[in-house]
Amino acid sequence: MTALRPHAEQQYADELAELSATDDRPRPPGWRLSPQAVVTYLLGDGAKITPKYVGPRRLMEIAVATLATDRALLLLGVPGTAKTWVSEHLAAAISGDSTLLVQGTAGTAEEAIRYGWNYARLLAEGPSPAALVPSPVMRAMETGTIARVEELTRVPSDVQDTLITILSEKTLPVPELTSEVQAQRGFNIIATANDRDRGVNELSSALRRRFNTVVLPVPASAEEEVDIVTRRVAQLGRSLDLPEVPAAVEEIRRVVTIFRELRTGLTEDGRTKLKSPTGTLSTAEAISVLTNGMALAAHFGDGVLRPADVAAGIVGAVIKDPVSDAVVWREYLETVVREREEWRAFYRAARDA
Ligand SMILES: Nc1ncnc2c1ncn2[C@@H]1O[C@H](COP(=O)(O)OP(=O)(O)OP(=O)(O)O)[C@@H](O)[C@H]1O
Ligand SMILES: [Mg+2]
Predict the structure, then answer these.
(1) Atom of ligand 1 minimally distant from the CA of 54
(2) Containing domain of residue 163, as a range?
(3) Partner of 83 for a Cys bridge, out of 27, 75, 111, 352, CB 3.0 to 4.6 A?
(4) What is the pTM assigned to this prediction?
(5) Are 145 and 234 within one domain?
(6) C-alpha dist (Å) from residue 190 to 75, 76, 99, 236
(7) Per its UniProt record, what PANTHER family does this chain match (predicted)?
């Protein structure tokens, strides 16, 4: 049996071992690697270490440096800017374990952040350490590792506030057992939050003060975005064992161009203003449109990524609201796509989709 999606520390075990063997800089207490080596792991070294994050080095340095202090890290950004991806790789590189994860939702309860009880045992034996069910955060404190909290701003604010004691006192009291769990060195928290959710449960100022915020930007240029998409599509194709489809630079470039133009509301040449659809059209969505296209081409096409393999995916990503987005898309199709000589085949495919 093989896992459908291995954790980062499993998938990149070789790279992590290689870095650890050659890393001669000081490592903060509880860390598997030095801060320098963690940044190299994230950005790659042009040789054996592959880039995971593509973007400003400085942001990763700030993120990693934060985790070596007593402040926690908040990764903020619009959807699809690699917040979850970066947090997983940071935990893998620093702690060798990216699995201590709390998924934040409106229904996240205090037990998910502190601890719960095995009720059968609790009733039979009363409160005892054996009846206690530690949360991922509690386990990270005990083992001196990184815990991840996804979508922190979706968590109700009274539940968010349970993190305040943990982050400021580095301890988690267990009154039922008149004991506490003291965080071991190496413990810290990485939270992610979506820009668009802000205001839903704005972080309390007390909590915000315990975090350093790093805002992950959308890719700065079309070239950078094409680079990210090309890499990730190739990686995903390999891990899904898709039959080899030659990476179709032209199709990738087109998807990225369409998404960027609609996102920014302006054509690449800066000449035509466009209406933007309601969806986000993130890099992540471009990656998934292309991965689906590759699967279509491999299984039902001639093994080459054709415009028709991506057209339906693009239309599906753009039209989230069947009324207003459909109007935006039709206008884009007729005024921009149609006019581009080299996009003829795509125009026809998109019109039929
Ligand atoms: N700058 C980037 N470098 C590398 N990969 C990126 C980058 N931007 C996006 N990706 C890719 O996009 C995909 C989605 O990223 P991820 O799920 O981490 O986004 P997110 O910011 O957590 O989004 P959401 O707000 O929807 O949770 C991942 O496969 C990731 O590799
Ligand atoms: Mg995410």
Answers:
(1) 3
(2) 8-215
(3) 75
(4) 0.92
(5) no
(6) 7, 11, 12, 25
(7) MAGNESIUM-CHELATASE SUBUNIT CHLD (PTHR42759:SF1), MOXR FAMILY PROTEIN (PTHR42759)
- Of 215, 249, 277, which residue constitutes the final position of a domain? 215
Structural contact between residues 8 and 89, judged by C-beta atoms closer than 8 angstroms: yes
Ligand 1: which atom is nearest the Cα of residue 88? 18
**Low-confidence winner among 51-55, 135-139, 243-247 (lowest mean pLDDT):** 243-247
Q: Which residues contact 8 (CB under 8 A, 6 or more apart)?
A: 52, 88, 89, 91, 92, 98
Distance CA 69, CA 244 (A): 45
Could you give the percent of the chain with pLDDT greater than 90? Answer: 84
Indicate the number of domains in the chain.
2
The per-residue pLDDT for 165 is: 92
* Mean of all residue pLDDT scores within the chain: 93
CA 75 to centroid of ligand 2, rounded, Å: 10
pLDDT score of 347:
96
Tell whether ligand 1 has an atom less than 6 A from the beta carbon of residue 257: no
What's the CA-to-centroid distance between 113 and ligand 1, angstroms? 24
Please tell me whether residues 249 and 342 are part of one structural domain: yes
Residues 331 and 233 in one domain: yes
**Four-CA torsion 158, 102, 31, 239, nearest 10 degrees:** -150
Q: Is the CB of 54 under 6 A from ligand 1?
A: yes
Per-residue model confidence as pLDDT tens digits over 181-237: 999 999 999 999 987 766 556 788 889 999 999 999 999 999 999 999 999 998 888
Give me the amino acid identity at 136: P
**Domain shared by 17 and 131, yes or no:** yes
Same domain for 251 and 295, yes or no, is yes
Instruction: For residues 20 and 137, state if they share a domain.
Output: yes
- What is the mean pLDDT of the segment spanning 85-93? 98
Indicate the helix (H) or strand (E) that contains 73.
strand 72-77
* pLDDT value at residue 137: 98
User: Are 81 and 115 part of one and the same domain?
Assistant: yes
Question: Atom 4 in ligand 1: which residue has the minimum CA distance?
Answer: 53
